[in-house]
Amino acid sequence: MKHVLLGSTALVAAGLMAGTAAAEEPVKLGIQGFYQAAIGGNINEDADYDDDFRSHSVETNGEIRFHGETTLDNGLTVGARIELEAFDSDDQFDQAYAFISGGFGEVRLGDTLEALSQMCYLAPQAGNLFGADSPNFNFANAGFAGYGATNGTCYGLAGQTSSIIYFSPNFGGFSFAASYAPEASDTVGGGVGNLGAGRASTEFDNNAGQLENMFSVAASFVQDFNGFSLAVGGGATFAGREAAPVGGPDGTEDYNAYLNVGFGGWTVGGAFELTDDYLSSLDSADRWVASVGTTYNWDAWTVGLTWSHGEYEGVGAAGASDEDRYDVIQFTGAYALGPGINLEGMVGYADYNDDNDDNLTVGVDDGDYDAIEIGTGIHIGF
């Protein structure tokens, strides 16, 4: 069953961490990462708005992860992880945090994802590149119609934020996490322009609409039972808004849940995410996404079929009464060339329905969109 990636995995400690040292040795650096590239496009694209888009595109994605840790004589493991985006980005460094782990679990301090996103599972879909639920690559242009170009069930309220997060030990398959972030930003050593060599000071608390005081909790149960596997869980994130605009909400909430069951090469399951008051400028605007899917794995092959449905209030000019709908269905396939190396492909259909057909120009029928998507690419993990 496929765990959410979102640019980096939520797995901690053991399996992915390189450079473990003997007792009281200095931290030793290890390097990991991935590179992804895909080519794809649209067939029979139909848009009710200006659709001067190319019919095809080449997309790339990659990340280098620097990780180091050491185990002390008292049994504690201490280390740090820094993730560098492989391409120019407004946020060149992704997650970057220090951690301490032991029998009590693990504590991270730095720029990282909220607890809900860290522990989330997607609906089953083959491979790492494509899918109807939170894909890394997407060739539909429905984003120009309204809310966005993809549906997702693991997004949470923010990306990397300067946070403190706790992961519990695993109790017979059960684990939980909790996180707190003063505001939805990665502050790079302090606020107010990062003045001075010491980069001291806190952040402004009057940025209109920005999320603040983000609390997130999540729990999961993941276990194998005599040929069956089960992953079930969910989470919630709560946040206020700084200097809430007139007519906007004072805060927002996000909830997700998932269930995946595996047996005999098959994985079936689904996932759900609901965000309450997700628009800072409009009160009572909600969005939700539900996805279901199945995959089958044999030898080096995995194939899957996944469908996601999203509903987004308040996207168009009509306000919160406007509820746009977005459906994506994709057949995905992956072939393992070698350890960490996949050739992947997909064929899918994207259908965006604008409730009031006025997202771009009031009174003009220009919000609906649909297209057939195709794509193929490679994932290389190292």
Commentary on this structure:
The chain has 382 residues and is mainly beta. The protein has a single domain (28-195, 207-381), classed as Porin (Beta Barrel). Helices cover 1% and strands 52% of the residues. The chain has one helix at residues 115-118; strands spanning 28-47, 56-71, 77-85, 93-102, 105-112, 161-167, 174-183, 211-225, 228-241, 251-263, 266-276, 287-298, 301-313, 323-338, 341-353, 369-381. It has a 16-stranded antiparallel β-barrel with strand order 1-2-3-4-5-6-7-8-9-10-11-12-13-14-15-16. The radius of gyration is 21 Å and the shape is globular.
The gyration radius over C-alpha positions equals 21 Å
Helix count equals: 1
Percent of residues in helices comes to: under 10%
Derived from helix and strand composition plus strand pairing, the structural class reads mainly beta
- Beta-strand content: over 45%
The number of distinct structural domains comes to 1
Give, in spatial order, the strands making up the sheet with the most strands. 1-2-3-4-5-6-7-8-9-10-11-12-13-14-15-16
Query: What distance lies between the first and last C-alpha atoms, to the nearest angstrom?
Result: 21 Å
N-to-C SSE string, H for helix and E for strand: EEEEEHEEEEEEEEEEE
Instruction: Report the principal-axis shape.
Output: globular
Uncertain segments are 5-23, 188-200, 358-365
CATH class: Mainly Beta
CATH topology: Porin
Mean model confidence by pLDDT: 84
